[in-house]
């Protein structure tokens, strides 16, 4: 320590070292800042895509949530209504002719005017009138106001989806019909209101009458079957594999295969379901039971993997504590390990269920793309499902189905949001028990 | 709290007595690490040893007085074929605290876990030899490990209360073993276990709140309460204070001293000061072998094995 030179050298070396540290520090901070910005960019890009998707869907679909109804007075002409079989009477023609007569418009021999007028009303008119006559035969000979939906094309025009500037031969509603529509509007018989039919009806070939209820119920039934089969089986299998199974070649092979199955394309599960449940077990085609079974097969690997990782995440000290207290293996697993893993298990279950809900490909193979009118109420009847309904509507030729496709997508998304919200609430409840 | 800091081995080699009051203290508690380092400065003067300096199966043993609770004979443990414990034979007397000491990886925890068959829960673990509790082989086919663990409680290194309420934690053992049926009776069991663990005054007004809200030391006492709620015969403690601060450690040591009157306690500890303070019997393990065992006073004052001396004077470990 008496010699000054080593101290000086030390001082210089220390300074050099500090400079190097400083330079390195700058680089490290820059790296961190860069990474943060990449992160922000990635999130921003994701948000932009999501926003574009949502805006596009809402923009396209929001018009499907309201619709127009016209109220026409119809004279129930006893000469043209069969009392014994009111369903056979041509109420649409009757209403159209009377409407033309009220306005003093002369029809030609081919009935062009009346058929054009008829095209403004939904075919629902026939059923509304027939129902009324069937219920109250005393209305025959009287004039009754009938409120019926406008036809899909008239509705689209009023929503501004069909523009008069389009050449007449390229639109489904001509100038004369537009003039009539506007006249009806001026008379105040056309009203716009919330499209309840969209939520209370099953599928229909008439867009103005088509609704998602059938598909929602179909999807719900199917999901119920899926949940009842996949969750107990998947969670049970995961618990056994993780907590009880001996670690040997066989369980290794099982584990590898479960991981592989999670990556099998869903259409393959559709083929399996077709061969196994429909061709071999002769379960009814396009029914929620078959759909649910296929989706359960598809959801199982995901569920097993998620549950196993949730169980793995439970600290071993809890198992040791319970075992050392003299709890049996089963008591340890079910009263200590599983409750702690429950939030993770729930998340896995919900993710796989949400995945199953949106799955379309396997449904195509088990016949769920067929047109199913009405609302199903049993698990062995043919049903539609939301994703296949979207597929069917998107392919439909009527323009009015396009906005309804977007509306069905919104319904599907809301369905998923409700499911996820339920899952989060359930998870909170489980977590609150420490 | 009794302090049993013995004159250590170096006293006899002429370095003078170690005054316990000179060692750093915290909260009236001797800091174990500080004690170890002060001993490390012991003289290097060799002395005559009675036993071999080489590692080997030689066990220097002075048998305990009083009834033997657990008698281990030639116990070896293998993990996936790798031997972790070599032919350990040790008598553990009842109503006594027996400390198992030794450097990390010496097999003391492994040996502890053979006594309630916790090694059964590790796949690939194999135990050979005979461990008799009250003359009965605990590895016998007729012995259910569940029943054994009701008789042999265990406290782990890190406090591991169940993520449930304080009450449920203590009530769990009596409940699963069906020892208590009525709710009022259970309340009494929980209260007395918590009282014996010295935790009652701190938690009496919040029995239904989460055990995870307690401090580390309180959690460890809760775990002890949980273990004694089933009235076991033996309590195994695997470094129960290593995750605790000195004050919490002092409370646990005090508690161990009180529990000694009712239970046979086996404690694994890294801290030689702690072994000296709480135990009456000490067993020193090294490299998977039991090296020396005897009354704690003898082990710390008169170790007969060179490795024991080296360890307790802090030359390794």
TrEMBL record, chain A:
Membrane topology according to the record: Multi-pass membrane protein
Chain segments annotated as transmembrane: 37-58, 212-241, 261-283, 289-311, 332-357, 406-426
PROSITE patterns recorded: ABC_TM1
Keyword Plastid set for record: no
Taxonomy, superkingdom: Bacteria
CDD domains reported for this sequence: TM_PBP2
Keyword Secreted appears in the UniProt entry: no
Entry-linked Pfam families: BPD_transp_1, DUF3333
Location in or out of the cell: Cell inner membrane; Cell membrane
Keywords for this protein: Cell membrane, Membrane, Transmembrane, Transmembrane helix, Transport
ABC transmembrane type-1 domain segment(s): 216-422
Family: Belongs to the binding-protein-dependent transport system permease family. CysTW subfamily.
The protein, known as: Phosphate transport system permease protein PstA
UniProtKB/TrEMBL annotation, chain B:
MF-aspect GO terms: ATP binding
Pfam families: ABC_tran
Keyword Cell cycle in record: no
SMART domains: AAA (SM00382)
UniProt biased composition (Basic and acidic residues): 41-50
Taxonomic superkingdom: Bacteria
Domain ABC transporter: 70-312
Region (Disordered): 1-60
Keywords: ATP-binding, Nucleotide-binding, Phosphate transport, Transport
InterPro entries according to UniProt: AAA+_ATPase, ABC_transporter-like_ATP-bd, ABC_transporter-like_CS, P-loop_NTPase, PstB-like
Name of the protein: Phosphate import ATP-binding protein PstB
Native organism: Brevundimonas intermedia
Taxon lineage: Bacteria, Pseudomonadati, Pseudomonadota, Alphaproteobacteria, Caulobacterales
UniProt gene name: pstB
């Amino acid at each position: 320590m008496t010699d000054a030179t080593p101290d000086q050298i030390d001082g210089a070396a220390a300074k050099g070292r500090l400079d190097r540290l400083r330079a390195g520090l700058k680089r490290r901070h820059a790296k961190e800042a860069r990474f943060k910005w990449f992160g922000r960019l990635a999130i921003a890009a994701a948000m932009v895509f999501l926003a574009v998707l949502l805006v596009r869907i809402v923009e396209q679909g929001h018009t499907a949530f309201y619709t127009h109804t016209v109220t026409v007075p119809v004279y129930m002409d006893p000469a043209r209504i069969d009392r014994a079989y009111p369903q056979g009477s041509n109420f649409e023609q009757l209403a159209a002719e009377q409407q033309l007569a009220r306005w003093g418009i002369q029809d030609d021999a081919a009935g062009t005017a009346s058929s054009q007028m008829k095209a403004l009303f939904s075919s629902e008119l026939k059923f509304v009138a027939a129902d009324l006559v069937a219920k109250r035969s005393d209305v025959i000979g009287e004039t009754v106001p009938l409120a019926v939906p406008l036809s899909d094309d008239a509705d689209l025009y009023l929503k501004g989806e069909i523009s008069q500037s389009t050449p007449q031969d390229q639109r489904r509603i001509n100038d004369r019909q537009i003039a009539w529509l506007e006249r009806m509007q001026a008379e105040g018989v056309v009203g716009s209101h919330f499209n309840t039919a969209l939520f209370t009806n099953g599928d229909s070939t008439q867009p103005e009458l088509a609704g998602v209820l059938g598909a929602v119920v179909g999807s719900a039934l199917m999901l119920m079957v899926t949940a009842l089969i996949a969750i107990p089986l998947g969670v049970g299998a995961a618990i056994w594999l993780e907590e009880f199974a001996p670690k040997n070649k066989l369980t290794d092979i099982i584990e590898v295969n479960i991981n592989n199955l999670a990556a099998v394309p869903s259409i393959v599960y559709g083929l399996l379901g077709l061969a196994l449940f429909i061709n071999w077990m002769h379960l009814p085609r396009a029914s929620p039971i078959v759909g649910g079974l296929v989706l359960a097969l598809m959801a199982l690997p995901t569920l097993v993997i998620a549950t196993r990782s949730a169980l793995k995440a439970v600290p071993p000290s809890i198992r040791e504590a319970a075992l050392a207290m003299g709890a049996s293996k089963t008591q340890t697993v079910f009263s200590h390990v599983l409750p702690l893993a429950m939030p993770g298990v729930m998340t896995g279950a919900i993710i796989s269920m949400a995945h199953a809900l949106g799955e379309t490909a396997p449904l195509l193979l088990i016949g769920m793309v067929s047109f199913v009118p009405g609302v199903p109420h049993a698990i062995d009847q043919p049903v539609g499902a939301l994703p296949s309904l979207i597929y069917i509507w998107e392919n439909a030729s009527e323009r009015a189905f396009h906005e309804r496709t977007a509306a069905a997508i919104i319904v599907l998304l809301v369905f998923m949001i409700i499911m996820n919200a339920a899952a989060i609430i359930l998870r909170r409840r489980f977590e609150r028990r420490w | 709290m009794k302090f049993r800091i013995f004159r250590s081995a170096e006293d006899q080699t002429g370095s003078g007595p170690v005054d316990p009051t000179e060692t750093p203290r915290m909260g009236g508690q001797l800091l174990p690490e500080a004690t170890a380092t002060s001993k490390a400065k012991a003289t290097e003067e060799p002395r005559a040893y009675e036993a071999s300096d080489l590692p080997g199966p030689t066990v220097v043993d002075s048998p305990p007085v009083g009834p033997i609770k657990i008698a281990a004979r030639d116990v070896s443990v293998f993990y996936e074929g790798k031997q972790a414990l070599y032919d350990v034979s040790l008598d553990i007397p009842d109503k006594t605290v027996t400390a198992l000491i030794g450097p990390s990886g010496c097999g003391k925890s492994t040996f502890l876990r053979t006594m309630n068959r916790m090694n059964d829960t590790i796949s690939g673990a194999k135990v050979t030899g005979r461990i008799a509790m009250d003359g009965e082989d605990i590895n016998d086919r007729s012995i259910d490990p569940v029943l054994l663990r009701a008789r042999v409680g265990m406290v782990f290194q890190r406090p591991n209360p169940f993520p449930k309420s304080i009450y449920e934690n203590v009530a769990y053992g009596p409940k699963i073993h069906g020892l208590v049926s009525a709710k009022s009776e259970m309340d009494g069991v929980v209260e007395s276990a918590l009282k014996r663990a010295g935790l009652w005054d701190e938690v009496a007004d919040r029995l239904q709140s989460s055990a995870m809200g307690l401090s580390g030391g309180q959690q460890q006492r809760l775990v002890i309460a949980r273990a004694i709620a089933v009235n076991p015969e033996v309590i195994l403690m695997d470094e129960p204070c290593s995750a605790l601060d000195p004050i919490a450690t002092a409370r646990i040591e005090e508690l161990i001293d009180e529990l000694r009157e009712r239970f046979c306690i086996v404690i694994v500890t890294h801290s030689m000061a702690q072994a000296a303070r709480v135990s009456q019997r000490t067993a020193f393990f090294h490299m998977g072998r039991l090296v020396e065992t005897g009354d704690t006073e003898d082990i710390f004052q008169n170790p007969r094995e060179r490795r024991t001396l080296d360890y307790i004077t802090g030359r390794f470990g």
